Predict the structure.
Amino acid sequence: MNCNSKQLNRLNSFTLNFIESKKLMQPQNLRGRRFTVDDKSLYKQIGKTYKMLSKVFALSSRKCIMDILKKIPFQTGINQRIFENLKNVVKKIRNKLDRCCTVIFDEIALSASLQYMAQKGNIVGFEDRALVFIVRGCRKKFKQPVAFYLTNSGMTSILLSEIIKNIIEAGLTVISTVCDQASTNNTGFGFEIGGHDIVSLYDVPHLLKGLRNNLVSKDLNFEHERKNHTTSWKHIVQFYELDKQQSTEGDRLTPKLTDCHVFPTKLKKIKVANSAQVFSQHIGAIMKDLLR
């Protein structure tokens, strides 16, 4: 910790105070150390770097920070505290382009179990899904969860519009929404809220899996160079079997492809990587070369 005074003077006040406090705290007993709010907020600000810094400086453990976060009350619905804080942060963003964002929402499955919350005096666990909303910057790098709901029936257009209105009121410019292809998420090509045009987008991983699943059960008819063509999943199966039969062990053209990628009865429909590998440029180039 021996630092040149001239070098220390070049640091900003936050960094300088951080180093000075750690110099005083380092020789103290582990149980005698007391950390400030700024020390604990570092975990959120620098993420993975926190683990590296904890090997050099005396920092609060991850478990300690997680225990503090668990004490913060979070209710379902729009979190007004988050939005109030979001307003204050957005006021400091001068460039209007840095305020452009996307609203991402998706459902996650919950374990089925009823629990009695003694502090609130109610029972939770009747719903088996949680609908989570996240705001993500388009140009400026930021990501913030803003609301969550426990649900059994999915999202409604009224709920989506209410959340987007709150985000717009916070000062951000919503230009698009991103979600999966659930029937309840069908909002067309776009919509307008409060004079803002918002484009509806489906996330690429679900589109890729949807393309694969449709091709497995249906043929694709298309026109290329004024000729009609048909693409079928059986072409991929034939190519895979041919590659396995004609190639010697360890010398396959497509060593990454397995039965779980190709055969309909063995497909791992949840894994995006399997769909991406089947539709990769490498596989397409080999199949095209074989047709010549």
